[in-house]
Amino acid sequence: MRVTFLLLLIYGLSEAAPPPPMAKPGCTGLCGNVSIPYPFGITAGCYFNDWFHINCSTGNDSSVRAFLPSIKMEVLEIKFPDPNNDDDSFSSFELGIVRVKMPIITSSNCTSTGPSNGGVNMTGGPFYFSSYRNKFISVGCNNMALMTGIDPMLVGCNSDCNSETNIDKEANCSGFKCCQTTVPSGIQVFNVSFKSKDEKNNGIEKCKYAFLAEEEWFYSNMTNLSSEVPPLERVPVVLDWTVSNFTDINFTKADRRKVRRGSTDYGAVYYCGYGYEGNPYLKTGCQDINECEKDNNGCLNKSDCMNMEGSYNCDGRKTRTKIAIIDRSSSTSAWLLGCHDHHFLLPCDYGPQHGPRA
């Protein structure tokens, strides 16, 4: 009689769930290295409206890039709100975001051939400059840079190049050759007016620069912006986005999706419920998170973790490891001799026709 021993590890038997769908069914969800989730899309029928249309094209350097023709900017990344935020603490900062490359605005006396004096106007669209994730920055001497088109607000900063100015200020971009300030919330327009800080000392004006930039980029480059900015044409900026007039969702409990209306300056925010991740703009886009696969799930031992729909617990129950002896000469396919639960051999429940069973 030929006997084969088979070890079945039931705990690890199930395969990891595939990632939740992000693009509409039948639509391309990737442009180069950029994920394109619905309501964004590349081809007709794959995006919510023209504001979310992505143009995926190959540049002169053979790299594939994603562009938003509606705002004329290259897209670096698209993200949804964090699915694990507690409902009671959902804040206006937790919106969908789009990281884009935005042109630097220069003064009229600059000789640069790159993008210069054209501002950005996204009025009427779903995109807003993130006040939480961006900075307004200006570089130049005898410089007063003011944001325009945001009346009645007055936002800007000053910088000069006087030798008596504390040189440490350049490292912090706080007035010597460079200045920065916060960005007001809810704005869709960006343009800049340059003036002289000292009208008596404006005989020979040098080139001045102003732009919005992602806060993380600013902090990693602020020590020497006066020399780093001139060669640049564009910098990364973060846009908040939402779909306030989205009508494709008919919420049910099984959808695992939620909406907060009027909770932000921009209208409704759609997101996956707590314990779920994915795309809340697709009917089956929100899927359960297996917290037991995460190292920081709070369970003392990973084997104690039990994943549940929308949650998990650490109750200490362990999945049994079944040891089977397969007798190829027998009419039964497998006989389970015992059930091993890590440290204990447990009795198995014998079925009437199919041999022992756990």
Q: Kindly report the spatial arrangement of strands forming the biggest sheet.
A: 4-5-6-7-17-10
Residue fraction in strands: 35-45%
Radius of gyration: 29 Å
**Largest sheet geometry:** 6 strands, antiparallel
The helix-and-strand class reads mainly beta
Number of helical runs?
Answer: 3
> What general form does the structure show?
elongated
Overall pLDDT confidence: 76
Strand element count: 28
Instruction: Quote the distance from N terminus to C terminus.
Output: 25 Å
Give the low-pLDDT segments: 3-14, 86-93, 318-358
Q: Report helical residue fraction.
A: under 10%
Keywords: Disulfide bond, Glycoprotein, Kinase, Serine/threonine-protein kinase, Signal, Transferase
InterPro entries: EGF_Ca-bd_CS, WAK, WAK_GUB
Organism: Quercus rubra
Main location: membrane
Structure description:
InterPro entries: EGF_Ca-bd_CS, WAK, WAK_GUB. By secondary structure, the chain is mostly beta strands. It has three helices and 28 strands. The protein has helices at 168-172, 215-221, 225-228; strands at 3-9, 30-31, 34-35, 55-58, 64-68, 73-79, 96-103, 105-106, 120-121, 127-129, 134-139, 143-148, 156-159, 178-181, 189-196, 209-214, 234-241, 257-264, 267-272, 276-278, 286-288, 306-308, 311-313, 321-327, 335-341, 344-346, 349-350, 356-357. Strands 4-5-6-7-17-10 form a six-stranded antiparallel sheet, with no helix packed on it. Strands 1-24-25-26 form a four-stranded antiparallel sheet, with no helix packed on it. A hairpin with a 2-residue loop joins strand 18 (257-264) and strand 19 (267-272). The longest helix is centred in the middle third of the chain and has 7 residues, at 215-221. It starts with a strand and ends with a strand. Residues 3-14, 86-93 and 318-358 have low confidence and may be disordered.
